[in-house]
Prior knowledge:
Number of helices: 6
Radius of gyration: 26 Å
Strand content: 35-45%
CATH class of the largest domain: Mainly Beta
Shape: globular
CATH topology of the largest domain: Thrombin, subunit H
Strand order of the largest sheet: 1-2-3-8-7-6
Distance between the termini: 74 Å
Amino acid sequence: MVVVIRFVGLLRYSTAIAFLVVPLLLSPLPAAQAELSEERLAQAVERAKRATVGILERMPEGRQSDYQLGLSLRGTGIHLHDGYLLTARHAVERQDGAKIVVPETILILTQSLDELPAKLVGGTAYLDLVLYKLQAPAKDLETAVIALADREARPGQEVFTVGYPLGWGPTVAFGRIGNPNTFLQTVDTRLLQSDVPVCSGNSGGGLFNLQGELVGVMHAIIKTDEAQGGHGCSRLAFAVPGVLTKKIVGALLAGTQPGFSRLGLQMKVVKVGTRWRVAVGQAFEPASFGGVQKGDLILAIDDTEITDAAQLKNYLMERTTPGQNVTLRVLRGDKELALTVTLGGG
């Protein structure tokens, strides 16, 4: 470039300088942007760490001393705001005789090693979530506020989790969302599958996007590795989706039990040409009141195409409330119909 500039006239020289100066001014920006992005991610991770608590094992009955040798953590929780803690139901459940119960009070451990009691607000076995409220102030949690993401997690999206795997932590692990519509027999909802490496003890911890917003709550793993003591670790991790978590938390904070819509359909699959479609096996209330009949092929609900029964169930759970009107598009014979159904509760 210098040799070329040396042999051009003044006008062209000025033009050449302009082309030279622009890249020099712009070249530092990608590095600066990357540094800023890294700083924001570091802040998001640090905030998530401060908001993450360990769920302590129940103390032995009759303990007389304030001194205890060692700590035993059974799970992970997330501080949302104002002392409210969210965790997985199975991370706090206790055996009480022949029954498994959710305790009214649990003990949690903060990052600064403060042991604090929290009282049950409410929960749902349907989605393996419970909400507790701290009974004592915790300084390191006052500014650790976690927002629930408005956008759903997408395949390939980068995420991270903070937790207490095998009773140690808090640890931070990164990965990506795989299939956001995975099903296990452990809960009656879809789950987010990710390749975030987690172990026993991560249950109840948060799954965060890179802005530090909650996109899921860790629920289960498919064990692929053996850790110390036979505990399971895996890169096949599953979380309750944030959109459902937000619905549950909102209801519990309002002092109500989470309500889910009921359509009143028994579904089956039938083969139409080369394609398997969802069909109505039996129609009950309120679907029958809306004109849905046995044998109807379900095409869509509120303009969302339905390809299987699980997708219809997800739509009802995540996007509707009891009493809401929905439009079912069905195929009856060779005629397509739009039927309005007022959803029931359940």
